[in-house]
Specification:
Blueprint: H1 2-13, H2 33-45, H3 51-62, H4 65-77, H5 79-106, H6 113-155, H7 162-177, H8 182-214, H9 230-243, H10 250-254, H11 263-289, H12 303-336, H13 348-371, H14 375-403, H15 414-448
Helix pairs in contact: 3-8, 3-11, 3-12, 4-5, 4-9, 4-11, 5-11, 5-14, 6-7, 6-12, 6-13, 6-14, 7-12, 7-13, 8-11, 8-12, 9-14, 9-15, 12-13, 14-15
């Protein structure tokens, strides 16, 4: 298996000499020695991830905004349902991520999620999942732009128009997204992880101290909020789903691994870390603050402490956000320059096209953040439309269509058939119910004036 993978990697990393190069688009000629050297160097540069670095990169992509929306999800669903869903969805996400990794091992040429779509549904699947892939990651960059704007407004006591802070956030995300290799991002990952742990820790400790100073118990409940309806409950569920969205980038990250079979260690480490962080964050902050908990959760720590928490959280807001732009860029750039040395981004043309592409992605993400200026619903609609597929029903389809051997009803497959059918159903329920709930809530908020209008100076909610 590994020898086949090495062979396949070489085929994709160093195209034959008669393929198209950047200097002669549309022509057929031999590559020069310089071009061959650049391709070989590029292939080596994008093949440096071990399982430990993969874990760090997955942490950078995964543990960020999801944790900040958990306490309010617990407030809507109640402590019991919130905890069960946090742990349950996390375990399902670990399994579907395992299926994604199995597809990568069986089909080493799959570089991005869209390539798996081609295996399942041909060109239509490639284009459909490719569009979903780009839109979801652009929404993620937009949500980080919005969170950066909220952070700066909080730190400065609304010291400027939120559009200005949105632009500042977008520029920071752009600059951090420019390094094209995920190995470089892994270096920043340690700062990123320390940032979110410290920010959450500060918020938990501060809210706990504030509760003890008040001298009375908070109004948290084991059961769903009394005013919770279908819309609010589904938005809370999709916010938990959003927190476990790491499978979307897994193909892209694994494509840089020097030993892809080690991915299992990474997803187990990430999955357990996520489940612990998310469940403790949601449960503890909700128990200390009660029904008045805010989203992002850092806003619940009081004026001074929330400033400190947001200051500490700035690295995770921007580092985790930027990696999504890098993944989009790698997908689009690699597709446009598939048979050219340009795709390795180690030539002047490669760098110019890369910078222009990342700039365009960031501008679109900023527009999304300004058009949907409310944190909870932006996460919800993103989860419903896209993560429902990437984390649930697409991996289930992969198992049935690409991984399964023998009849789905054979004794060896029966349990896995049931599990993957459940994942598929969960994905469809989130897609339909979550999208409906998100649209209804967005319309309600605009109708009642709960949120500022798009592209205005008011603070996002």
């Amino acid at each position: 298996m590994m020898s086949d993978m090495k062979k396949e990697d070489t085929q994709f990393a160093v195209p034959p000499a008669d393929q198209i190069s950047e200097e002669s688009v549309g022509q057929v000629r031999d590559l020069t020695d310089v071009e061959k050297a650049r391709m070989e160097h590029g292939a080596a540069h994008f093949n440096r991830l071990g399982w430990k670095r993969l874990t760090v990169v997955l942490i950078v992509e995964a543990i960020a905004l999801g944790s900040l929306g958990m306490p309010q999800a617990f407030a809507t669903l109640g402590m019991v349902a919130g905890t069960l869903l946090s742990v349950g969805i996390g375990l399902v996400a670990i399994y579907t991520s395992y299926v994604v990794g199995q597809v990568k091992l069986k089909y080493p040429h799959v570089q991005h999620y869209a390539d798996a779509g081609r295996l399942m549904m041909g060109k239509f699947g490639y284009e459909l999942i490719g569009v979903m892939f780009v839109l979801q990651l652009t929404f993620l960059v937009g949500s980080h732009t919005l969170t950066g704007s909220i952070a700066f407004l909080n730190l400065t006591d609304n010291g400027a128009c939120s559009i200005i802070f949105g632009v500042v956030s977008a520029v920071i995300l752009l600059l951090l997204a420019l390094p094209p290799s995920f190995a470089e991002v892994a270096i920043l990952g340690y700062i990123d992880f320390a940032s979110i742990i410290l920010a959450i820790g500060i918020t938990i400790i501060a809210t706990g101290i504030q509760r003890s100073e008040i001298g009375m118990a908070s109004d948290w409940s084991a059961w769903p909020a009394k005013d919770a309806d279908f819309v609010s409950a589904f938005i809370a569920v999709t916010n938990i789903v959003f927190a476990y969205s790491f499978a979307i980038c897994q193909f892209s990250f694994m494509d840089e691994m020097h030993t892809p079979k080690d991915f299992v260690k990474s997803i187990w480490w990430l999955g357990i870390i996520e489940i612990v962080i998310y469940t403790l964050t949601g449960a503890l902050i909700y128990s200390f603050v009660g029904q008045g908990v805010k989203s992002p959760a850092l806003l619940s720590a009081g004026p001074l402490i929330s400033k400190i928490a947001f200051g500490v959280a700035l690295p995770v807001i921007f580092i985790s956000g930027s990696i999504n732009a890098t993944v989009i860029g790698r997908f689009i750039h690699g597709r446009v320059y598939r048979d050219s040395v340009t795709r390795f981004i180690n030539t002047p043309k490669g760098w110019i096209t890369w910078i222009l592409l990342i700039t365009a992605i960031t501008i679109v993400a900023w527009i999304i953040a300004e058009a949907i200026p409310f944190f909870e619903d932006l996460l919800s609609i993103s989860s419903s439309l896209f993560i429902s597929g990437f984390t649930f029903y697409f991996p289930a389809m992969m198992w049935f269509m690409l991984i399964r051997q023998g009849s789905p009803f054979s004794s060896k497959n029966l349990m896995l058939t049931a599990l993957n059918a459940l994942c598929f159903i969960i994905g469809l329920v989130i897609l339909i119910g979550g999208t409906y709930a998100s649209i209804k809530d967005i319309m309600h908020r605009y109708t009642t004036g709960e949120v500022r209008g798009p592209f205005s100076c008011g603070a996002p909610s």
